[in-house]
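Hi there, hope your week has been kind to you so far. It would help a lot if you went through both lines with me. No rush at all, and the record is pasted right below:

***
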Amino acid sequence: MAVLQVESVKKKYQLGQVNVVALAGVDFAVSRGEFVAIMGPSGSGKSTLLHLLGGLDQASEGEVSLAGKKLSMLKDDEITLVRRRNVGFIFQFYNLVPTLSAEENIALPLLIDRKNAEDYRARVDQLLALVGIADRRQHKPDQLSGGQQQRVAIARAFVNEPSIVLADEPTGNLDSKTGEEILTLLRHSCDDLKQTIVMVTHDAKAASYADRVVFLKDGMIVDEIKLSGAPHTQTANILERLKALE
């Protein structure tokens, strides 16, 4: 079953007198529990596509369907509600609220959705344990390492049990060892929690943790490979595909 469906999506921008085509016709689907990596050269449309998938921007043409809802048919406030309840976001620079503790940052989407965080105490405790920072629950972001902050951000993305989690270079600001720990955590969330993840990355090693890698160039999907086996075993294959796009 497709959690996300993209049909003939185009995105155009007007920069002064120049018409920029960021996406030139993308067809793309993500099944429940699937981990998909999106790769491509700089300017290929990766971030634009991720924004459209999460309802942060609207397509110029075509349709994005999220959790069974066609976004083009919804008003802005309805899209906001769909995004709030169906999408979790993980960013490269964590985007934590500096004045809140780890557990308060994790619970923040619940409060924004006007839910009683106390009713979800068990869920927050479960996620703190899952991401391995139960002993840091009262610490604020400036008291946490980069890897610990990203673990908080992952738990926050999962707290509402979203239909899909969108990750934008989630290991781009981390050292290689911590990055691998974060990717292993994301991989396990798909395997154990059946979480659906779409990740934009420039790192072939990071992409090797996914089930499938989609390659963009000039705003179009030009290649795709399905992965099997342990992470890293197809890193060379991914790098070869990337070089072919240069």
Summary: The first strand starts at residue 2 and ends at 15. Strands lie at 2-15, 18-31, 35-39, 61-66, 69-70, 87-90, 164-168, 197-200, 212-217, 220-226.
